[in-house]
From TrEMBL:
Endpoints of the signal sequence: 1-17
Protein name per the record: Tetratricopeptide repeat protein
Source species taxonomy: Bacteria, Pseudomonadati, Pseudomonadota, Gammaproteobacteria, Oceanospirillales
Family matches, as InterPro entries: TPR-like_helical_dom_sf (IPR011990), TPR_rpt (IPR019734)
Top-rank taxon: Bacteria
TPR repeat spans: 212-245
Keyword presence, Nucleotide-binding: no
Keywords from the named record: Repeat, Signal, TPR repeat
DNA-binding recorded as keyword: no
Amino acid sequence: MLRTCGMILLAIPLAVALGCAQNPTTTRSKPIAQPSPTLNDSAFSRILVAEFTLQRHGPKAALPLYLAEAKRQSQLDIIKKTVQLALISQSNNALDESLSLWREVAPDDEHPYALGFSLALDNGDITQGAQLIQQAQNAGVAPYFVIQYLDQNLRSEQKVADVSALLQQWQEDESLVKQLLSNRLDFIHGDYTRVVTQLPTLLQQVPDAQREQLYILLSSSYTELGDLQQSRNTLIKALEVFPSSQRLRINLLGLELKMGRVDQAIADFHAASMPLFLRQQVGLNFAQQLSENHPEKALMLLEEIPKAGGLDYQLDYLKAQIHHQTGDLAAAITLIKGVYGNLAWNATRDLATWLYQANQPERINTLVIERAQQDNDIDHILAISQLHQQQQRTDLTLALLDLALDTHPNNMQLLYRKAIVLETNAQPAQAQHILKQLVRDYPDNADYLNALGYSLMVSQPDQLTQAIVYVERAYSLDDSNPAIIDSLGWGYYLRGELNPARTYLEQAWALLKDAEIGAHLGEVLWQLGEKDNARTIWQQALARDANYPVLLDTIKRFAPELLLSKDDHEN
């Protein structure tokens, strides 16, 4: 087998607490800050050993050294480093110990309570979550992290249910945070009347950091109850308190549109006093909402938003989307051709998709190559070649790859992609020529070895022995790759060794329910006399890809009635 290429109040993340990003796959970490002057020479030496171990052997090896030093020194920077390493190493025991140390050394710091609570609830440990709330309150820390956790997990019914259950274990009846949490749950459960009854009083008690989100919650509740005017009044009042709030401004403009006050919303946007960056952000969001029913007004609005400040691509991208929506393909393409940065792939994808929709796919390759030269991104070319294949335009696929290879003649990704396309379109000799070149240049690349071996075994029976040598070499390099395992099993089948063929093909099928693997496994089972099992495998493969050529050819040869029943079902 060939292998082809809302309303959320964010909690303070660990990255803020630790001063660096968390990434479970990271094997290296920045050295810790210069140790505190209070460290003695012995402690300083141990820290250097721990850091050396981290750099040479990774987080898991360094974690015990850092944890031991954190217990000895009670230095906050060392404790935070230990928490980071425990997270990366996924060591729950070390994480519990280091968070406990953090709470002991800095009892008024919200971060260790918030992180511990999040981990406890993620593991379904409601009791531990309640205990951490109590510890935070005992230390004088208001547990707003509970509300932040809920807001981050609104889409998880289980986590919302866990927070609801935790509310029942909350010991302090009059806690402001507890009342806010209960109010938030009322909103989630659709009790908007209760929200608008209680929330105005709570708004007067909370710190400013919590108040903005509550205004949005209150406004949304009025909207849900059908009182749009009161919802609007709430947002206007909130903007008097938070005049620079992007979320409040966007909510107000969206509400104006919902109320049918389109011109008033546009006037409010222009009249609002906002810094340039905020005007751009709010304008982009507002124009997107406006474009749903008033695309021409949205385009006029976007033309009036200054491009300075780094949002040029976002503005042009949205303009292009709206032009395409209104049927002006020429204007859409003119704009989207110049969109790069974080939206580069979105622009390339949309450009190709629009041209296919307009029955002009022959224009795609030239534009994609121009963009790839500007952005120097081979991945976009590979992705568009895949789009051509999905559209059954192999001619455009090969033309695109050849254009790219003119500029990057030795790019192994482009060469491999071209070889796969040639192989799957009955041009094995050309494919093998490229694959042999790749195997010479990259003798330890399992994908190249497997592709060459498979191509030889299915196109040149006299080369079967050499083909299996290539595939066995690939398997020695990557024995968990279902494509390689499938090739090995098929090679044994072609050699007449049905039992080992079955073993490998069943392993490949267990790893990946692929149509070609299903075709191969079904054929082996059929030859072993297990025809019912073969039919079952083929039916499962058809359910995944009913148009795969190898699968269809196999079934036509052995059980064509399966295709007749498929056609009857489709009709």
